[in-house]
């Protein structure tokens, strides 16, 4: 049957209701704290992207005579680090690796964990039991310990850091995905879709994903704050990012020895980690309450 | 009866209720249930909650796999002889919870159009078909088609669910408490719609409900279930006027009569049904039956044919046979 | 109840096996030959093979795992590559120090967090509630190792009130409960207590608000009868959950103490881990992680059992 002009005209007349995500967005905009947190987080991301244009100096080039200059030194508004590199520029450039190391593991873990959890939740039965028991083992480690154990065994390096953090975040995300999917699977619209003869893949794509990805994603965003702290923590221990790269955790590590000379300078990178972590935390809280309201 | 359009043969479904090995417990949700549906007829299914009505419905539409027994469509065993997907478009189901049966992220037009697209119809054809069906169930597609489930009333949602089932052009629709959650006036409207559709399209219904008045109103034949078994099955008229199983009698006596003079004061069915994990031996109803006697607590009652296509599983009928 | 405990214990066995498998695998995911750090770089091929045989690296993985597990069960976690001493005794010495720190931090964090949460839940939506909520958000978002540095800067570098690092005067590693030693504990314990404080405050606030909304409590409140009985009721109902949170937090602190111990050079398991990482001392890393993870698993078990005996309604799970 061809689609006639009449059909098209008829179709166009159907007025579509405001979708779920638009109402979430409206509610989110009313939450001032969350909007502020979102703006700060967006600002940090923009700072990371445009670092070369914003930073006044080269973050890797030091000057021996300027070593550990205090905050407010001429030409060094936030001072200079233990190798005489401009602190402001290093903090700006540091956003690149720090955000990358904090956000990317959560995103990868979201993709893998959601896939595992949704599959386990939708299929149920022994597939579910085995998957969840295996995840329980990883869950039995405190997250900090597991991250340090894996990257400690693998050794320093950006890739090893990413890998260990990803492994840490897969089990909690998969757990949430599994429980959300299990509760959705029991609803009658899934039964109705099964009674339609659609394949499992199609049911998951058309009926399950739209209803579970939102809550799983919000949970994942709440992990970004933890991930930022952990990622910087790994570099702080000498794992993760290695010198001379600018990364906030690593900067804390190398400046720690200067704590008696320029104490407040040494604490600066931590302010950035804190700012990032708290803004992602509040952003995620705002997202959750915006999505929580029953329709 | 000519070849039944849909038939259940010794369906058994037990659910695991925890425990392992010898201590393993099972809920005998459906235990050896058989019946047939003639084309165009409506079979009412009644019983208290937990009697296996909904499990029977899900077995019938193949949402659950039976532990043993089979479902046949036009005489062909579903699965080996008739592909499941072909069966899906012939037998559809409408659920009790109108809200939970609709994907909250889908517009009503998409919800109705989903089924046909699964069976190979193009998106635009399916959308047009969905519009026609929404129109047929009394919802203006230009007003309601783009809405989401939470923007509709319960009655409107159930109309959408009926339209969705119709979108497959099915022969049989299993209605599992489909009108039970609706207000009385809305319920009547939806029932009228169902009866109109039955006439127009020659549909066969399995109408599951705990409301005996409604079942009598819509059904040609009625099946009474108790603890996973068929207690009695027969034509609506004779079953309601001359029940041949004490359980049916008790249910009918408990029914709120429309005639105020005939309302009974006493509750003929005391207590809750026994636990289906450990059903009583013999006749499962004997623990609550006012007329239980000798064999009831030890022997499973056989099915007695007590009239034209009227069967009841009660020992009282064998006494009557002997007396006669 | 007894069957619940038994089931819960049985469930822990495969978890423990899995945890030890992960710890065993740690050495094998590490790049390079496990012997590299033991052998001199110019070792002959024969010596290499000899050492492989001694350490059992020439056998199959399942064999190696069983052998390693068997030894671990007898308390033999191998020898540290850096010091040559048995890993088990190194870990054993360090665990005590970590426990002192983690338990103190848990007590501080739980007391303060409980207080904040209680007050916030009791006076909901007042300024004090908002303050408590803000503190709990800060508590979970702050990088605690940085907070430790800030504490050192304020109290050691600027004010010179408390020592910055170590666990006793003159680098003493033998803990004594006297002021000389305890002043070393104050900063790390307070820093560490911030980790559970936010979570405890959040949990207690929700619990208290929830209980106060129950009908009979709000009825009493309406009559102005907000006496000790109501308070006792609130505390009794909030206690099991609060205790469970506390137990789990103690577990997290045991495992998560590494960063804070590094900042304060506190001679616990975290410090040991830091050394193991710095010197690539894999047996030490493996042994410490194993002991900490087992602690965590057992603590989880105890919390579950304790919580269920306090509130038998939870038994279904």
What does this structure look like?
The complex is a heterotrimer of chains A (295), B (324) and C (317). Chain A has helices at residues 5-13, 20-30, 32-49, 51-54, 87-123, 125-139, 143-154, 158-185, 188-195, 200-236, 248-255, 263-292. Chain A is mostly helical. Chain A has a domain at 101-282: MetI-like fold, CATH 1.10.3720. In chain A, helix 2 crosses helix 12 and helix 10 (200-236) packs antiparallel against helix 12. The longest helix of chain A is centred in the middle third of the chain and has 37 residues, at 87-123. With 324 residues, chain B is of the alpha/beta class. Chain B contains eleven helices and twelve strands. In chain B, helix 7 (184-201) links the parallel strand 7 and strand 8 (204-208). In chain B, helix 3 packs across helix 4, helix 3 runs parallel beside helix 6 (154-166) and helix 4 packs across helix 6. The longest helix of chain B has 18 residues, at 184-201. Chain B is globular. The mean pLDDT of chain B is 87. Chain C has 317 residues and is mostly helical. Chain C contains twelve helices and no strands. Chain C has helices spanning 2-29, 45-55, 61-73, 87-122, 127-141, 144-158, 179-213, 215-222, 228-256, 258-264, 269-278, 282-310. Chains A and C meet through helix 6, helix 7, helix 10 and helix 12 of A and helix 1, helix 5, helix 6, helix 9 and helix 10 of C.
Whole-angstrom Rg of chain C: 24 Å
What is the H/E order of chain C? HHHHHHHHHHHH
Distance between the termini of chain A: 38 Å
- What is the CATH class designation of the domain at 101-282 in chain A? Mainly Alpha
Distance between the termini of chain C: 12 Å
Multimeric organization:
heterotrimer
From the 3D structure, determine the CATH topology of the domain at 101-282 in chain A.
Answer: MetI-like fold
Strand tally of chain A, please? Answer: 0
Mean pLDDT of chain C: 80
**Basic shape of chain A:** elongated
Continuous helix count of chain A:
12
Query: What is the 3D shape of chain C?
Result: globular
Structural class of chain C: mainly alpha
Low-pLDDT stretches of chain A are 1-9
Unreliable stretches of chain C: none
> Treating each run of at least 4 consecutive H or I residues as one helix, how many helices of chain C?
12
Name of the CATH homologous superfamily of the domain at 101-282 in chain A: MetI-like
Largest interface: A-C, 44 and 52 residues
| Main sheet characteristics of chain C | none
Let me know the average pLDDT of chain A.
86
């Amino acid at each position: 049957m061809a689609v006639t002009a009449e059909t098209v005209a008829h179709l166009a007349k159907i007025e579509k209701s405001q979708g779920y995500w638009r109402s979430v967005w409206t509610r989110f905009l009313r939450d001032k704290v969350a909007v502020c947190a979102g703006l700060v987080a967006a600002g940090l991301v923009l700072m990371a992207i445009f670092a070369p244009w914003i930073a006044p100096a080269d973050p890797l080039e030091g000057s021996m005579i300027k070593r550990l200059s205090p905050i407010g030194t001429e030409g060094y508004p936030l001072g200079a680090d233990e190798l005489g590199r401009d602190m402001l520029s290093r903090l700006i450039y540091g956003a690149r690796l720090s955000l990358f190391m904090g956000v990317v593991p959560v995103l990868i873990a979201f993709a893998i964990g959601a896939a595992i959890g949704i599959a386990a939740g939708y299929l149920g039965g022994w597939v579910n039991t085995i998957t969840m028991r295996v995840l329980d083992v990883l869950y039995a480690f405190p997250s900090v310990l597991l991250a340090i154990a894996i990257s400690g065994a693998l050794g320093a390096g950006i890739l090893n850091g990413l890998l260990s953090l990803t492994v840490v975040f897969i089990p909690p995300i998969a757990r949430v995905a599994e429980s959300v999917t299990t509760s959705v699977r029991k609803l009658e619209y899934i039964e109705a879709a099964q009674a339609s003869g659609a394949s499992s893949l199609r049911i998951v794509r058309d009926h399950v994903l739209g209803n579970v990805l939102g809550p799983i994603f919000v949970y994942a965003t709440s992990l970004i704050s933890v991930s930022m702290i952990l990622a910087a923590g790994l570099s702080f221990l000498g794992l993760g990012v290695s010198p001379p790269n600018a990364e906030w955790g690593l900067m804390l590590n190398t400046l720690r020895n200067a704590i008696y000379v320029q104490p407040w300078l040494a604490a600066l990178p931590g302010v950035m980690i804190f700012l990032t972590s708290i803004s992602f935390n509040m952003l995620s809280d705002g997202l959750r309450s915006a999505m929580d309201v029953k329709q | 009866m000519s070849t039944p359009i849909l038939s259940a043969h010794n369906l058994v479904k037990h659910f695991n209720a925890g425990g392992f090995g010898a201590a393993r417990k099972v809920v005998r949700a459906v235990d050896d249930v058989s019946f047939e549906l003639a084309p165009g007829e409506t079979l009412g299914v009644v019983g208290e909650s937990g009697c296996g009505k909904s499990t029977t419905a899900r077995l019938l539409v193949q949402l659950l796999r039976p532990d043993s027994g089979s479902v046949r469509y036009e005489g062909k065993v579903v699965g080996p002889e008739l592909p499941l997907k072909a069966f899906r478009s012939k037998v559809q189901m409408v659920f009790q919870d109108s809200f939970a049966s609709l994907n909250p992220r889908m517009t009503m037009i998409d919800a109705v159009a989903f089924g046909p697209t699964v069976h190979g119809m193009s998106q635009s054809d399916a959308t047009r078909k969905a519009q026609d069906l929404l129109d047929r169930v009394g919802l203006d597609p230009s007003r309601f088609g783009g809405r989401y489930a939470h923007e509709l009333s319960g009655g409107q949602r159930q109309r959408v669910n009926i339209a969705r089932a119709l979108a497959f052009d099915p022969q049989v629709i299993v209605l599992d408490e489909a009108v039970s959650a609706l207000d009385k006036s809305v319920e009547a409207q939806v029932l009228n719609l169902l009866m109109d559709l039955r006439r127009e399209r020659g549909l066969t219904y399995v109408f599951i409900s705990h409301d005996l008045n409604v079942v009598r109103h819509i059904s040609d034949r009625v099946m009474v279930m108790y603890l996973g078994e068929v207690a009695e099955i027969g034509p609506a008229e004779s079953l309601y006027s001359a029940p041949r199983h004490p359980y049916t009698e008790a249910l009918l006596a408990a029914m709120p009569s429309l005639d105020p003079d005939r309302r009974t004061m006493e509750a003929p069915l005391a207590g809750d049904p026994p636990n289906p994990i450990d059903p009583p031996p013999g006749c499962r109803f004997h623990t609550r039956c006012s007329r239980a006697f000798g064999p009831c607590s030890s022997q499973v009652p056989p099915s007695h044919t007590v009239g034209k296509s009227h069967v009841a599983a009660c020992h009282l009928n064998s006494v009557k046979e002997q007396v006669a | 109840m007894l069957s619940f405990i038994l089931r819960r214990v049985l469930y822990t066995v495969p978890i423990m096996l899995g945890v030890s498998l992960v710890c065993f695998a740690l050495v094998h995911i590490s790049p390079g030959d496990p012997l590299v750090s033991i052998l001199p770089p110019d070792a002959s091929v024969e010596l290499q093979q000899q050492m492989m045989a001694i350490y059992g690296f020439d056998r199959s993985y399942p064999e190696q795992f069983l052998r390693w597990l068997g030894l671990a069960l007898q308390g033999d976690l191998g020898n540290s590559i850096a010091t040559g001493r048995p890993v088990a005794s190194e870990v054993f010495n360090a665990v005590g120090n970590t426990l002192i720190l983690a338990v103190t931090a848990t007590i501080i964090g739980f007391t303060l967090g409980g207080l904040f949460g209680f007050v916030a839940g009791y006076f909901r939506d007042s300024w004090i509630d908002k303050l408590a909520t803000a503190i709990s958000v800060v508590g979970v978002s702050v990088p605690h190792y940085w907070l430790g540095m800030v504490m050192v800067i304020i109290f050691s570098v600027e004010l010179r009130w408390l020592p910055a690092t170590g666990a006793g005067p003159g680098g003493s590693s033998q803990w004594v409960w006297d002021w000389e030693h305890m002043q070393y504990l104050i900063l790390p314990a307070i820093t560490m207590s911030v980790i559970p404080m936010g979570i405890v405050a959040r949990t207690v606030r929700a619990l208290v608000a929830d209980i106060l909304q129950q009908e009979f409590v709000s009825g009493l409140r309406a009559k102005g009868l907000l006496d000790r009985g109501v308070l006792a009721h609130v505390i009794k109902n909030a206690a099991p959950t609060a205790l469970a949170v506390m137990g789990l937090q103690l577990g997290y602190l045991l495992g998560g103490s590494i960063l804070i111990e590094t900042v304060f050079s506190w001679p616990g398991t975290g410090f040991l881990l830091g050394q193991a990482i710095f010197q690539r001392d894999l047996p030490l890393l493996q042994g410490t992680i194993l002991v900490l993870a087992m602690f965590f698993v057992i603590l989880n078990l105890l919390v579950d059992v304790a919580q269920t005996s306090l509130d038998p309604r939870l038994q279904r799970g």
